[in-house]
Each structure stands twice: as C-alpha cells, then as structure tokens.
Amino acid sequence: MIIVLKNGVERAQTENLVEWVKSQGLSAHLSEGQFQTVIGLIGDVSSIDMELIRGLSIVDSVTRVSEPYKNANRKFHPDDTVIEVGLKDSLKVNIGGESNFAVIAGPCSVESKEQICEIAQAVKAAGANLLRGGAFKPRTSPYDFQGLKGDGIELLLEAKQLTGLPIVTEIMDLSHLPLFDEVDVIQVGARNMQNMELLKALGRTDKPILLKRGLANTLQELLMSAEYIMAGGNRKVILCERGIRTFETATRNTLDIAAVPVLRELTHLPVIVDPSHASGMARLVKPLSLTAAAAGADGVMIEVHNNPQAALCDGAQSLTPEQFAETLIAVNKVREALKQ
Ligand code: PEP
Ligand code: MN
Questions:
Q1: Is the dihedral of CA 84, 87, 93, 95 positive or negative?
Q2: Residues in Cβ contact with 337 at an 8 Å cutoff, skipping those fewer than 6 apart
Q3: For helices 321-339 and 282-294, what crossing angle results, to 10°?
C-alpha cells in the first residue's frame, strides 16, 4: 500500500503517520522526492482501513500495490535511486539517476598482476569508471580455469590502488564474504540470482550489489531477488540485463533490450546492460552497447582483455582496449544525442 502525502505537509505530521504505520506491525518506507512524499507500507496490510487513512487531512491518495516487490517498486520511490559507489581509497562514482552513466570494464577473470593492472590502466584511460574482474568464476566445466579466488581479489585491490577505480567482482559462496571487505561492488552472477541465502546475507551488508538476471528468469523474478536484498536493509542494488536463454543459437544469449525500459518503469533501481555475455562475440559488443545507451540504461559492463586470444576465460567476447575506447566514444555520442 502506498500513501501519497499532500504538498507542504510538515515533517512532524509525516513522522506521526510513519510511527502509526509502524505501530500496526508494518514497516514504513518514506520517500521524500522532489515533487511528492510517499510512504510505502510493507507487510500484511489486509487489516489496514484505507478509508481511515484517506480521510486524514495530510493525505492526498492511498492505493494498494499489487506487485509482490515493494522496496524495489517505483511506486514506493518515484525518483531514481542513485547509488554512491567507491570506498574511501577509491574514486567515487554515482550509479543511477539521469546524469550518470556507469562504465564497468575489465577482464572476465583476473589472471595475473600484470594483466589486471595493464587492463585497469587502459580502461581508465578510455573512460571506464569502475573495474571488473572475476576472482571466483562460475564455469560450466569443472575442468576449466576457476579463477584465482582470494589471490584474485588481492590483485584487483592492487589495480584499484594503481588507478583509483572502484572494483566489481563476483561472490559465489556465502563463506567467502569476509574476503570482500574492500571490494566496492559485489556482483551476484546470473547463476546465483536465486540463491536466496546469499541474497539474504548480502542484504545484511551495506555494500552495493550488482545483481545479474538469471539465464531463464523473468523480470519479476529479478525484482523479487532484489527484494530479498532490500528486505534485509540494503537498498543499494544495481540490476543487470545480461541476455537470456531463448531458442536462438546465433548469439551466446539473447539480449532482452526491452528489459531496460520495462525495468525503468517498474523500479527506481539503476539498470545496466552487459553486452559481452549477452552476445558472446566481441564484434557485437559495440552495437549492443549503443542499443543499451539508446534504451536508457544507467550503464554498461563490458569485458576487455589486453590479449583476448590468450584470455583464460571469454576471450571471444572480450574487446581489446582500443576497441573498448572506440565503443565508448560511440556510446557517448548516443548519450549526447539523447539529451537533445
Ligand atoms: C560475469 O560477469 O563474470 C559472469 C559470469 O556473468 P554472468 O553471471 O552474467 O554469466
Ligand atoms: Mn565472462
């Protein structure tokens, strides 16, 4: 249920109403936007008398929210959520909101100090504002490179120190959480989108979480996974469309570009696109990145390698630093065109 307050209501009156909501055994989410103040009620609202609330002098309207996701719902929070990323030892980047565009770039996996540091410097020079790199890798085959694990995170931290770029890396198991203390953004990969215990644990942290859409999950399921994190108190969730499984075999996955405008309607959370895993092919990354920017995405996550042919993981979809730089120039042109 959402309660929209009239303009100019005093703070004390708003707080009184929030307290009353809490006294009914519900939690209240207050969103004070530029144009509207909205109180979102979360919990079992079946015994709440809507007419009673509607009759209050400070209330403009009351509506029931039928969607099962509440915290993530744009109705609860009409303004875009802007997430500040970057721990004290890195640059600060805002993700979400009209004027921000996140560019997360780096290799599929961290392979060595030289590799990650060289790529970090190259992507920064091209305009990336966050560095990615897998340390724990969810590979389809147990015989493939599984990542450098804790050592990989250490190398990412060295690259962060060198460039100042905040780092994004994937968690696969709850027991590894202590290793992520200095990681700026924790990624939940497609395969773990519905690992509910992991989501609950991340909900108890205050880290920004990059939540990737599962290979065969609906947008509502993605939002319900975000809800798991947010219900625990962590509101810093970034959603990522990374392609889904369809009957099409020409590309690794099928980029569901409609997910971007649809999610932007349904939720206030930032939405980014991963054109690398969506296509599986380096030559498709630029056109899909342009499409993502044109569709209104809040950013892109692109795999970049200094020597794609020798990459231990996902070389075929990795851009060289030069191709990445060229892609970003084109993406920025699309963003400029959208402003006109
Ligand atoms: C990744 O981004 O490194 C990754 C494994 O992607 P996904 O979870 O989308 O397959
Ligand atoms: Mn990859």
A1: negative
A2: none
A3: 20
pLDDT, one tens digit for every residue, the chain (340 residues): 999 999 999 999 999 999 999 999 999 999 998 888 999 999 999 889 999 999 999 999 999 999 999 999 999 999 999 999 998 889 999 999 999 999 999 999 999 999 999 999 999 999 999 999 999 999 999 999 999 999 999 999 999 999 999 999 999 999 999 999 999 999 999 999 999 999 999 999 999 999 999 999 999 999 999 999 999 999 999 999 999 999 999 999 999 999 999 999 999 999 999 999 999 999 999 999 999 999 999 999 999 999 999 999 999 999 999 999 999 999 999 999 999 8
How much distance in Å is there from the Cα of 134 to the middle of ligand 2?
Answer: 8
Residue 138 Cα: closest atom of ligand 1: 5
Residue of 212, 240, 251 with the most ligand 1 atoms within 8 Å of its CB, for mutation: 212
Between the CA of 168 and the centroid of ligand 2 the distance, in Å, is 13
Q: Quick check: CB of 203 below 6 Å from ligand 1?
A: no
Placement of tokens 């085959």 in the chain: 141
Looking at the chain, how many residues does it have? 340
